[in-house]
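To fix ideas, we quote verbatim a fold written out as tokens:
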Amino acid sequence: MLETINPFVYARPLDPIKDKNISIIRKAKTNEVILGLEKGDYFALLAPNHTGKTTFIYQVMEKIKQALSGKYRCLYINFKGIEHYSLEIFFQHLAQYIILRIQKEGWGGISGGTHIKNAGHFGHFLEIIASKVDFNLIFFLDEVEILPKELVRELLFVLRTRYIESTINQKFRKTTVLVSGTVDLLELTTGEDTKTAPFNIAKQITLSDFQEEEVLIFIQKLEQLGIVINTNCINKLYEATKGQPYLVQKICYLVVELAKEKLKKEKKEITLEEFNKCIEQISEEENESFAYLTLKLEQELENDLELLNILENLLYSTEDTYIIGKWDTSFKKLELAGVIVREGNKIRIKNPIYEKILKRHFTKAYFARIYFAKEKWGKATQDFKEHLDKISHEELKTSAEISQMQVGLITRTNTLLLKKLPLDKILDMILESIVQCFGFERSYLYLIDRKEEKLICNKIVDSKNQISTQVLNLKDSLYHIYLKGDTTSHLTTVILEQEEYLNPEISAEAKTDPYLKQHFGEKGSVLAIPLMNEDKSIGILGVYNKKPIKEEERNLISSLTNQIALVIKNDTLCKRLHLLNEIAGIIASNAEISTILNSIIKKILEGIDSSEIGLFEIKDKVLKLKENIDWGQKNEYKVGKGIIGLVAKSGKPNKVSLPNEEVLAVPLKFETQVIGVLGVRSILPNSFNTDDIEFLSTCAEQIVMAINKDKYFEKIGGKKQ
């Protein structure tokens, strides 16, 4: 019978117990780790994004718990949320977290950690742990690639030192490490010179995609749910995904949701056409995972014409492409980025879905422009002629120069992503470059401020590079974002519908759109594209030109919006990391717990799209408001009632969207026990996404750490130093 809750999961790691029915156990790799533990090996887990690294770690930990708990104990640490700490605070925070976990589990009487100032102190701290425990402690360090390189190098050098010491002194073998990551971890374990890589002692564990017989298990699970699938769909799942775990799970998730809708209409069988639409839905969507793919490729292609030629052949040639000679580091990086796979000496795009996504991004014209930019005229001419029709060589050369500027725009944007420049400076440079490279009359950028309920015009840049700013109040009827169906302005349409707006000739629309008439007159063409972070609108990128905007220009601007959204997202994440660093400093202070908690929730509001926050603690199955800022809701909730009570009961984050508000709540958990709930509220729709859930969850962990620290000092009757 079809379950109410969709069992398939694609947005988080799988729990080896709760998600057992949809998990594929990688037995051979798990046994490889277990056998390595007996030898005292350290491990580097290398795999592309969304291949299931964290899920695999959970599976290894569960097997150790079930079969080897008397000899080994596992301690999992995910670096999300602490990656931007200073060197001193990072190692201090890491040590204190380890101490709290060991104390909670009753594994030993270890204390301290506040004296740790550098990597050397942390190494001595690990030595103390090894001398005080009577079992082997395995550290699982996940998402190490998000740490700053200088910090992760320090950490890995310490771990390598521990490993070398363990080969000399048996007592140091009581601590073992598995580090998980992608491309950067490859460089840190092998690199150009293996001898100098900081973690070159690690045994590499690689994860591949599911085999065909493993993918068929998911089809069987769909059938067990009572979903009738056309027989032609059975092999389609593997053909489309080639076993990529994220894609397999997501397609199955979409099929279940489709089956639920069909059941309401008393229709049962999932047809091949409907199954293909689920696959097509994934290949046409824009998300962070796919943006990561294209960004990694662009970075590699910029200065590597050989690789550019190979990718072009992979995407557009009908002949098989083979790589002769050594499988070198540059190709290995692409493999770990999740773009390509190797079959013997043959290279192919990872799966048909990724191939479609890459073709949409890397058109033939894209390759032609790069060749022109690199003065490879012969290679580019044919593709460019097909694109621009028959024109003279001089005209072609002029077009190439313009296209080179446009390619430079994309490359420049990618470069800006990696530079530590202020957000306003990056956005100014991008808007100026759009006007220069495309010859448009004007480019403009609007950002949503949900706290102030305003759509803020961040910048308008015209062809003379004059930058102006203005603020549009969403409470005014023209820009009132809540009013569904209000299409008075194209800006409102873009925000509400979350779809791009292209008007080749303004004159027909100017009479009904005061914004167009005021700013652009009655001649020209306007393109406005929403900036999206998952399903959350964060703003609008728009351009105006006196001549009609061409399809190729629209495609390039559209791809650029993904990069701008990523720039804004990275800036938000960076601000949040600074806030988490400040929160760690607040926790380390000598202030009273009430002052600490109040200071923490103020910091949280600085990093999330909300002006209302409530911190609840559980007492006698009732959640009572402990600290808050403008929390305009109830002060008490019974466990299981309302979103606050439901989160307390389930122990999982939850989000509720209503016509006039959206509430996000996350649990405060110490191990498996829920001790409270942290909630934020916004009166605008689509205010919270996955990043917000992760940020609020990390803040909740910090709050739990502060509360437990306070209780610890109360228990021992001591004073905070």
Summary: The CA atoms of residues 52 and 690 lie 18 Å apart. Confidence is low (pLDDT under 50) at residues 384-402, 467-487.
